[in-house]
Write a structure and sequence with these properties.
The protein has 297 residues and is mainly α. 76% of the residues lie in helices and 0% in strands. It holds the Pfam family Rubrerythrin.
Length: 297
């Protein structure tokens, strides 16, 4: 984007809230489109797979990254670790415990098991980030930055949701959004660590990001039925990109402009145009498949 980012402390709180919301959407699109690309591979649709991978890259490395700059998401290494510790602590002590308890009450035992397992993972992540923060902020302590984080990738299979409760399904979707956002944030935090001469911290962030995407998000996606056949995936993609391009981003841009955040508004309007181009590109793939997407009422 041509517009330069304003200082983050100059951004109106309402603008910050809307940009954060849009960033979460971009992060979710990134990881979802990567899963859709693999499904297209399985159906021997390489042109569709390539489009998904290219778009996924744009969502993270252009849209998410640009918006992160608008609100000053990435700070120094100590601040990034502090944010990560807070997020992992909330997931470990509150969010996943609540989701597991509700899933058990609703009879979704597999989801309850998964939520509890992921919560324990997040607690381990929190402790590693705490150790890293001590090493960064108190070098004389002798603490070292741990890098012993390994993802155990889960293959996302196409199919319907595997839970019976609508509440569990909504919780799975909320967890997917959280894991996608963590993946995107940790990717940028790892990049900052590498740029500032902290290769061990970069590895910790990037390896944790891999767990969030290839393990946690993937396991949630399987239970939530997040991936279907490519035709269905394309229709969902077009609907989402069209909504962002015609309603969400223009609306956020108008509100940013009204709040005096004109540079933010310019970036968001540019992103809206990108999303409409994405919708058009995916619509072309649907046409080649000889399929029609349902029209919105």
């Amino acid at each position: 984007m041509a517009a330069s980012a304003p200082r983050s402390d100059d951004v109106d709180p309402s603008t910050r809230t809307n940009v954060t919301k849009s960033m979460k959407g971009e992060a979710l699109a990134n990881v979802t489109y990567r899963a859709y690309a693999k499904q297209a591979d399985r159906e021997n649709l390489p042109d569709v797979a390539n489009l998904y991978r290219h778009t996924a890259h744009t969502e993270l490395r252009e849209h998410f990254t640009e918006q992160a700059e608008l609100i000053g998401l990435v700070g120094d290494n100590a601040a990034n670790l502090r944010d990560s510790i807070g997020g992992e602590s909330y997931e470990a002590t509150t969010m996943y415990k609540k989701f597991a308890r509700q899933a058990r009450a609703d009879g979704d035992q597999e989801a309850a098991r998964l939520f509890s397992e992921v919560g324990r993972d997040e607690a381990r992540h929190r402790e590693k980030f705490r150790q890293a923060r001590k090493a960064i902020t108190d070098p004389s302590s002798g603490a070292t930055i741990p890098t012993d984080v390994r993802a155990e990738p889960v293959e996302i299979q196409a199919g319907p949701a595997k839970v019976s409760s609508s509440r569990t399904l909504e919780n799975l979707r909320a967890a997917m959004k959280g894991e996608a956002f963590a993946y995107a944030k940790y990717t940028l935090y790892g990049d900052r660590a590498r740029e500032t001469g902290q290769p061990r911290l970069a590895r910790l962030f990037h390896r944790t990001a891999a767990v969030e995407r290839t393990e946690h998000f993937a396991a949630h996606a399987n239970l939530a039925g997040a991936v279907r056949d490519t035709g269905t995936n394309l229709c969902a993609t077009i609907k989402g990109e069209t909504y962002e391009g015609t309603r969400m981003y223009p609306g956020f841009a108008r509100k940013a402009s009204a709040a005096g955040d004109t540079e933010v508004a310019a970036v968001l309007n540019g992103t809206a145009k990108d999303e409409l181009r994405h919708a058009k590109a995916f619509s072309g793939k649907v046409a080649k498949l000889g399929r029609q997407c349902p029209t919105s009422s």
